[in-house]
Amino acid sequence: xxxxxxxxxxxxxxxxxxxxxxxxxxxxxxxxxxxxxxxxxxxxxxxxxxxxxxxxxxxxxxxxxxxxxxxxxxxxxxxxxxxxxxxxxxxxxxxxxxxxxxxxxxxxxxxxxxxxxxxxxxxxxxxxxxxxxxxxxxxxxxxxxxxxxxxxxxxxxxxxxxxxxxxxxxxxxxxxxxxxxxxxxxxxxxxxxxxxxxxxxxxxxxxxxxxxxxxxxxxxx
Length: 221
Prior knowledge:
CATH architecture of the domain at 57-155 and 207-215: 3-Layer(aba) Sandwich
Low-confidence stretches: none
Number of strands: 6
Strand content: 15-25%
Largest sheet: 4 strands, mixed
Mean pLDDT: 95
Oligomer: single chain
CATH superfamily of the domain at 57-155 and 207-215: Vaccinia Virus protein VP39
Order of helices and strands: HEHEEHEHHHEHHHE
Structural class: alpha/beta
Strand order of the largest sheet: 3-4-6-5
Helix content: 40-55%
């Protein structure tokens, strides 16, 4: 749900799930479709797994009730004026007993970004609200979900966005932005112990995202 560039879709496809990558951005979906094809051709996903892309609106998804065992809604609700309506759609398409992983920007790192840059939160299609975890969970609970575990992630990404907000969100050529981005790429490719330990320690404090797991009750219609 809101697959964007497809990072989560690729990983679950690689693990053997039947995947539907859903988004309203045609360009993103075309790139995701291409990657699905490449993964299949290279044998990066089990032959029994399927993957497809679907364009649509998160407020009116073109799927039947209870059609999905698992849904990932990653960094989408903070963009939507009618976030609770999208949560109701998420609830509708998930089967009873199904689990969804919902992620939004964490309160503290996001609040710093808003303080540093007006462009960050006023550009078209950008973030229009900041959730506390309690607020997010309250909205999901009011939708009908059972609230499960949560955790924070991507602490090393928070300073990167603070730098971008400080020097200009479009100023990707700034030396500080380029240097920090290179470090993040190095970290993702090499996963050295020092940064993995540092991020684990920092996640509860400045993790860029908060992830909440929710379940549609077994007896739900």
